[in-house]
Amino acid sequence: MKANIIKVMEKDWDYLIVLDACRYDYFNDVYKKYFSGELEKGISLGSTTLEWLEKSFPSNYQNIIYVSGNPIINSSLKVEGFDAKSHFYNVVDVWNFGWNEELGTVPPDKINEATLNYILKFQDKKFIIHYLQPHEPYISEKYTDEILLELFRSKNGLQWDQGIWAKQRSPFEKLLRLLFVKTKIMKNTWKIREILKLPPLQPMEAVNRIYGTDGLREAYKENLEIVLHHVAELCKKIFLDEPSKRIVITSDHGELLGEKGNFCHRRGSKDSILLEVPFLKVKTVN
């Protein structure tokens, strides 16, 4: 069956749950532990969050509250031209008040807590609920302390500024990035960085360096299972109070986990792994 392009504003839902960087194939493998419903393999409008946002929400939607764990969608800053507050009735900045400094991300329980509080206040609105997982950093116990130690070992490593990525790079690192982004002649600069003893710039790179690609994929899967557990808890509470509400789970884009030496995701990609996302109409919670 041919996958359809997912235009979320043309779909029927009351609660749209977005799992950041969630691949269809990994979701398909595990979702039945948590939900029953109608799953469709969809094609995202973008291969990054910003691209998905720009194409999915071109207008102003006064009937929608956006609960955001992702700092790209926020009520105070315009990010690369996308001004979230001008597109939605309200943006709930969980990325700010729910940020966990040790984990370097927003834990899914903080998204649940904020969502339930706002549902009580705005029962006449639709909700988009954006979790950061399964996107890195990976928050299962195995991939936290040791990985963060590796990440922040050097001043050239990754630092956070109120939830916004701020990367401090040496001139040589900037040249590597220029070659990678502009010319795309390097499929994977990570090995070069490791050989040159440069610190990893992001959690995914650190996990891959310590545990290898198989370990990275396991970390991603564990992150997905963690967030699905919390999504299931949220859905149970919604169905308990509002059994007729329509809940959909989807993603903004996928993630490359070492396929053909490629990792992460980049704007404008036509790679099916980055564009194939789940679109699950939740019927019941298992």
Explain what you see.
The protein has 286 residues and is of the alpha/beta class. The chain has a single domain (4-140, 213-285), classed as Alkaline Phosphatase, subunit A. The protein has helices spanning 24-30, 49-56, 94-97, 108-121, 145-151, 171-183, 190-195, 203-241, 272-275; strands at 4-5, 15-19, 35-43, 61-68, 88-93, 126-131, 158-161, 164-167, 247-250, 256-257, 263-264, 276-285. Strands 1-3-12-9-2-6-4-5 form an eight-stranded mixed beta sheet. It has a two-stranded antiparallel ribbon with strand order 7-8. Strand 10 (256-257) and strand 11 (263-264) form a beta hairpin. The radius of gyration is 19 Å and the shape is globular. Mean pLDDT is 87; it is low at 154-170 and 179-186.
Q: Write the CATH architecture name.
A: 3-Layer(aba) Sandwich
Q: How are the strands of the biggest sheet laid out side by side?
A: 1-3-12-9-2-6-4-5
Per DSSP, the total helix count is: 9
Question: Can you tell me the CATH superfamily?
Answer: Alkaline Phosphatase, subunit A
How many separate domains make up the residues?
Answer: 1
Low-pLDDT stretches: 154-170, 179-186
| Content-based structural category | alpha/beta
Query: What helical percentage do the residues reach?
Result: 25-40%
N/C terminus separation: 27 Å
Total number of beta strands: 12
Q: Over all CA atoms, what is the radius of gyration?
A: 19 Å
Q: Just give the CATH class.
A: Alpha Beta
CATH topology: Alkaline Phosphatase, subunit A
Q: Main beta sheet: strand number and arrangement?
A: 8 strands, mixed
Please tell me what the overall shape is.
globular
Percent range for β-strand residues: 15-25%
Reading the helices and strands in chain order gives: EEHEHEEHHEHEEHHHEEEHE
Arithmetic mean of pLDDT: 87
